Amino acid sequence: MSMFKWEVVDPAPGEPVGARQRLRWGKTAGLGIQHVVAMFGATFVFPVVMGLDPNLAILFSGLCTILFLVVCKNRVPSYLGTSAAFVGGVAAIRAMGGDSADVTGAIMVAGLVLLAVGVFVHFAGPRMVHAVLPPAVTGAVVMLIGFNLAPVVASVYWPVDQWTALLTATFLVFAAVLFPGFWGRIAVFLALVFGFLLSYLFDVLLGPITSCGGDGCTPEPHLRVGFDGLAEAAWFGLPSGTLDDGVPAVHGPSVSLVFVLLVLPGVIALVAENLGHVKAVAEMTGDDLDPYMGRALGADGAATALASMFGGSPTTTYAENIGVMSATRVYSTAAYYVAAGVAIVLGLCPKFGVLVAAIPGGVLGGITLVLYGMISLVGAKIWVENGVDFAEPRNLVGLAAGMVAGIGGVALDLGGGFEIGGIALGTILVIVYFHVVALRDRRVGAGTPAEGVPAGRMETEVPEQDGEAGRKP
């Protein structure tokens, strides 16, 4: 069967639809639009908080999803939305004076590194990755990425409109846990709509607010919601205009080694995320997807590098869309091609871009308050799901120094104006110290437990990563 031919099926209620099967095109189109709604909120929120163009991010999410499906031979149903793994590194780049070209240049290199990892995994097998990046390490790195973002919420978004932020965050929390089924999975999108309406209502009832976001800015009166340029924006056209730092929305990358080091830890998060998502899809579909793990990693890396070459945002497989498949039991890759097509159309609509740019700062403050915390706690989720035992020195002592260095912003001056710190230094220390202690454990052996490790608990092999490891709500 050709890769672009799907077996048409009419399943009984509750019967699954496989990756190489599809419903009639009308129903497939409906499912594709549902996938767009599921990925929509996070895919354009994260470019906004990274200072990149959301229209471009939506456009490339569609293009990159098609690339991913083709590379994986339509065997791995997944949608590539904007990744949260690089948000912390991007914040660090901007804090050091880097602009959007520096951001996309660093992310492009990270994408190429992930592509290389994918090629390696394809030929060597995923077990080698698990050995270098066991759950204890990947969980720690994901936590570092999330906790590094806390100051961004506190200093940039929250001060714009604290009450709108608090009410939006409260709505998001309750929507995510109380709304039934699919509605709970699109809680971020619903929170955006709620925050927009709330901000507009406050403008009508309370008038302008005097505030600003960011250190050193001057508070000025302004409306919470503004649609300047909406009437003039075209319905169809390539993303254009300039970003807040003066860099064109569509731009070429600028590569700096210092900035590259700040985002490389995000590669570890993407490796964990992609492997976890492929395993989750394999478990749902019953297919053996191990032969496609390297392809999935490489495709995500290539997609991230491709998007960054034009000023777009990094990509990753989305848990939200996996949740949709879990609810519908329809795993057809044909639905993802429809979703990708809809995203491309949205990305080519400048009016849509103006609407996204109009998201009030207070709304972003509430959403990022929850999202950034969830990124952090996904690291703990990785630990719990994989039974990481902190009675073992490799997990306790091996991770401790790197965690404090990364979260606290400890920096190491290497001379000549070259400095490494924050997430980058924390990640290096986590990996090096963990494996140094683990090497000592292996030399002691399971029959002679190391001090502080109960007999019978010593492992001579690094456990394989299991479960879904992700960045988004």
Low-confidence region ranges = 446-473
Q: How big is the Rg?
A: 22 Å
The overall strand count is: 8
State the separation between the terminal residues, measured CA to CA: 37 Å
Share of helical residues: 55-70%
Q: What order do the strands of the largest sheet run in, or round the barrel if closed?
A: 1-2
- Taken from the alpha-carbon principal axes, the silhouette is globular
How confident is the prediction overall: mean pLDDT?
Answer: 79
In terms of DSSP E residues, the strand content is under 5%
| SSE arrangement, N to C | EEHHEHHHHHHHHEEHHHEHHHHHEEH
The total of helices stands at 19
What structural class results from the helix and strand content? mainly alpha
Query: Main beta sheet, described?
Result: 2 strands, parallel
Keywords: Membrane, Transmembrane, Transmembrane helix, Transport
Pfam family, one: Xan_ur_permease
Family: Belongs to the nucleobase:cation symporter-2 (NCS2) (TC 2.A.40) family.
Membrane topology: Multi-pass membrane protein
Walk me through this protein's architecture:
This protein is mostly helical. A hairpin with a 5-residue loop joins β7 and β8. The longest helix is centred in the N-terminal third of the chain and has 26 residues. The chain has a two-stranded parallel sheet. The radius of gyration is 22 Å and the shape is globular. The two termini are 37 Å apart.
Can you describe this structure in just a few lines?
This protein has about 475 residues and is mainly alpha-helical.
Keywords:
transport, 473 residues, 19 helices, mainly alpha, Solute carrier family 23 protein, two-stranded parallel ribbon, disordered C terminus, transmembrane helix, single chain, membrane
